[in-house]
Every structure is written in C-alpha cells, then in structure tokens.
Design brief:
Blueprint (H helix, E strand, L loop, with lengths): L12 H8 L6 H14 L4 E7 L6 E6 L6 H7 L22 H7 L4 E8 L2 E8 H4 L8 E3 L10 H4 L4 E7 L11 H18 L1 H5 L6 E4 L2 E2 L15 E2 L3 E3 L2 E10 L8 H7 L10 E6 L2 E7 L18 E7 L4 H4 L12 H23 L16 E6 L2 E6 L4 H8 L5 H13 L3 H11 L12 H16 L6 H9 L8 H12 L1
Parallel strand pairs: 1-7, 12-14
Antiparallel strand pairs: 1-2, 2-6, 3-4, 3-6, 4-5, 7-8, 9-11, 10-11, 11-14, 12-13, 15-16
Helix pairs in contact: 2-4, 2-7, 15-17, 16-17
C-alpha cells in the first residue's frame, strides 16, 4: 500500500486478454468491426481473403484508405488508449478504441497490422502466446512473424492503406474443421457484411466496395426500397426533442406478390421470422438487425409468423451511444426511456399493417375507407377469445331468411361450425409451413363466382327490393366480395342481359 492509501493494481496480461477473447464475437461480426476502421479511414475498396491451409490458415483484410502514421498505429494497437466518453468525428463508427484488438483476438492468437500512412511504412504485431511466458508482460512486437512471410505485398503496391493479418485461428480452426467449413464460413460472412454495410454498398457517391476472395459483396436491402408491391411505407418520423433520431416503418410484400427468387433473397440471412423488427443504424452502419428492442404493449413483443413482414429502420447518431447502451461489439441497443412510448406507437401501427398483409396474403384491401362486413367476428370475454359467424353477412343473412322450416337446423349447423373451428391446427400449420392457409375465393373460377354473386344479387334486388346501385354498394362492403369490384359492378348488366 502506498502512502496515500492507494494500491497500483495493473491487470495480468494473459488473464486480461483471454477474458477479452470471450466478448461474444463471431467471425462475421469481428470482420465487420475491422471494416469499420477501414471506412473511418476513407477507404473505397476493402479486400478480405480467406486462405485455407489447415491449422495454418489465415485471414487478411486490406483497404486503400489513408493509412496510419507510425504514432497512430502504435495507439491503434494498444488497449484502452481511447476514452469512449471522448467526442468522436461525425462519421466515426468506433467508440471504445478496442474493436481492432478485441475483434481480432476473438478469432486468432496472432494479430499483425501493417500500414502505409503519412510518414511511410510501419508494422506491429500481437502474439498472445508470448503473453504466457510470464503471464504479465504486454509485448507488442515490431514487424511480422517469420512464419508470416511477406504477407503485405499487395499493400506495398498502394500509395496508402492498411492490412490486417489473422493467424493461428484457434477460435475458427477447431478439431474436425475442414476446407468446406471454411468455404461455408465465407458464405456466412458475405451475407452478414452485405446486410451490415448495405447502405455504404448502395451509395452512388462515396461508395464502398467489399470483396471476399475477389468476389464483390452485393448489398442486401432489408426494406426492398422501391418495390411497388410493398403494401405500406410510412413517412420518415423524427424523435420528439431529438431530430437526429429518425424512423421509417415498412411492411414488406407477401410471398404471393413476389417471385420465388425475390422472396428467398428478401428473407435475409436468418429467415423471415427472425428478421422482423427494428433495424438500428448508426451513421448508416447497421448495429442491430431484426429486434423488437424489448418493446411491447404490456409485455415485450416476441417474433412470430404474423408479424414477419414488419421491418422498421431506426437511425441514431454516434453521440447517442451511451443513451442507447451500445456495446463493444455494436450488436445490442436499448432505447432510452423517454423514446419508448413513441417507438411503441410506431411499431404497433407497423405490426397491425404487417399482420393484415400476412393474413390476407398481400392482397390490397378494397374500399379501405369503409367498414367491411366479415363472415367471422371476434368476441372477447373474461374466459378468452371466441370466433363466431356474423349472421349480418349478406350471404348468411339471406340463407337464414329463406330457411323456413330448416331455420333451426341451419342455426344448429352454424353453431357446430363455430364450436369446432380448428384454431390449434391452423396455428400449427401456419407456424410449421411459415405461410397462412388459403382461406379465400382466390382459387375459385370466375364463372363460379359470377353465378354465386348473381344469386345473391337477385335475392337483394328481388325479394328485398333493393335498387341495383344499393345492392352493388352492399356487396362491395361484404367480405370477400369487396375483392371483386369489377364483377360486382357488372352484375346489373349481366342480370338484365
């Protein structure tokens, strides 16, 4: 103990590094952190190379950015040199000053970084095996390891830039790992980077290009911008009291409105159900893909089939990291308390519209400005939810009015149907098949639908004495006839001819 009552308590190097290796990165998220540094360095092109040689496999990341000076490289390779509370440049994608090291250490035991900056060439290296010599020395080596060879040939052909080398990939090349696993990893990384950096890859100006083994990464847009089949897109909304936080809500097209290829591509890396929710961006870099952020009405929303078409873009500035509780891996975010009710309102409207699009298989609602009488209605009570046939529906009402002595039998039949709706089976079929069952007249031939409508129309204009115009209006306000406005409007001429 010192004279002022304080102790010097430096961390043990080997123990600290091994702890940092367990922060929860995977290869894709770790590489995304390295790319953040390249973007901050104004790189236009970033090349990632997966080089398979069994246990001696390596991964390199090369960019053509401005590079670092020797002093900047020294700082970049040290842990904890930057205070996360310090102000950042508006386009800075970092925060903690740990991303390069923690992301790399999570995948490899040897990290080498070479750069060409304002004062020429420099190269520094961490080798975690060296930390175990006495367990308490922070050895930062100058130059590459002898086993690395001249790994930076491509960098030296450039005027400026930075190259990161991962070797001794102990967290990737594990027992039983084969070349095909390495190729599968490349595919997974490509999908992740296509999503995380899609707004950079889509730019017309200041565009970023990312290559994996010389194959260009194409952007994956979660929101299908410009797709005319989308049933709804909200205007951009700005947060109360903080106009730098912006939200735009999207409901994606139903499967029936897309080609098979477009549908499979639009589902995203983890599938339709997993990709629903908020997409949180900071400086156009995706931090969190598909999450309801712990929001909900009463209890937190969970991901389910009914809301799989709902995706919400949420942009925050990098000055909001603390309030949004952004972690080192840039993979979690929690909205501030004062914004939660605002976000819930926006999300609830999106969820309602997404649920409607999913349930009706993406068919646009006709006469949406009027109340449509449905054949089924929902009754809520203290004992739960029940589904009942609406006897005011025109087809059902007409049948009951003409039932005569069969009225009691028809009413009994309707009661049996109400009490035996296969709710659990419908729910299971929807969950297992990831699709709503066919439940409309979509597959009904036009001729059959015309005959069905003619029968109802004659009853309404004949027995009930409605005018042609009133009968048509009445049918257009009934489900599913509201989906066939052309047929309904043609009934007077069809009947009279």
């Amino acid at each position: 103990m010192t004279s002022n009552g304080k102790r010097i308590a430096p961390p043990k190097a080997s123990a600290m590094i091994e702890a940092l290796r367990g922060l929860g990165y995977n290869t894709a998220t770790a590489l995304a952190d390295i790319i953040d540094n390249s973007i901050a360095a104004d790189a236009e092109n970033i090349w990632i190379t997966f080089d398979w040689h069994g246990e001696k496999s390596k991964i390199t990341i090369l960019d053509d950015g401005v590079g670092m000076s020797k002093a900047e490289l020294d700082i970049a390779m040290r842990l904890g040199e930057k205070n996360p509370l310090s102000n950042r440049a508006e386009n800075d994608l970092g925060r903690f000053g740990l991303g390069l090291k923690t992301a790399s250490f999570s995948q490899c035991r040897r990290l080498t970084v070479a750069t060409i900056g304002s004062d020429g060439w420099d190269c520094l290296r961490w080798d975690l095996d060296d930390l175990g010599i006495d367990g308490n020395s922070w050895y930062l080596h100058e130059g590459a390891h002898a086993d690395s060879g001249d790994f930076s040939v491509k960098l030296k052909e450039q005027k400026s830039g930075t190259m990161v080398l991962w070797e001794n990939l102990d967290r990737i090349i594990t027992k039983g790992y084969q070349a095909q696993d390495f190729l599968d990893l490349c595919d997974h990384v490509e999908k992740h980077l296509a999503m995380v950096f899609h707004r950079y890859l889509e730019r017309k100006k200041t565009k970023i290009n990312i290559y994996i083994n010389d194959k260009k990464v194409l952007p994956w847009d979660p929101f299908l911008e410009g797709n005319i089949s989308k049933p709804w897109v909200s205007p951009e909304a700005k947060a109360p009291g903080n106009p730098d936080i912006k939200v735009q809500c999207h409901v994606l097209p139903h499967k029936d409105r897309m080609s098979e290829k477009s549908y499979l591509n639009a589902q995203g890396p983890d599938g339709w159900t997993a990709q629903q929710g908020f997409y949180v961006y900071r400086n156009e870099r995706l931090l969190l893909a598909g999450s309801w952020l712990g929001l909900g009405q009463g209890r937190s929303w969970t991901k389910d089939e009914a809301h799989r078409l709902a995706r919400i873009r949420l942009d925050i500035p990098n000055t909001s990291d603390t309030e949004w509780k952004i972690d080192i891996r840039k993979s979690t975010a929690r909205p501030p308390l004062e914004l939660r009710s605002w976000l819930v309102r926006l999300a609830e409207e999106t969820r309602v519209r997404a649920r409607r699009a999913f349930a009706h298989r993406g068919k646009p609602a006709k006469n949406s400005d009027k109340d449509i009488t449905q054949a089924w209605k929902t009754e809520h009570s203290a004992t739960g939810i029940r589904y009942k046939i609406d006897t005011e529906h025109v087809a059902i009402k007409n049948a009951l009015e003409q039932a005569g002595p069969l009225l009691a039998d028809i009413q009994a039949m309707l009661r049996v149907i109400e009490e035996t709706v296969p709710i659990q089976r419908i729910w299971l079929d929807t969950a297992e098949n990831h699709e709503t069952p066919q439940s409309s007249f979509d597959a009904t031939p036009t001729e059959e639908m015309v005959e069905f409508l003619k029968s109802l129309f004659k009853r309404m204009t004949g027995t009930q004495g409605m005018s042609d115009e009133l009968a048509c209006e009445h049918l257009l306000n009934q489900e599913p006839f509201n989906n066939y406005p052309e047929l309904v409007k043609s009934l007077p001429s069809v009947i009279n001819n």
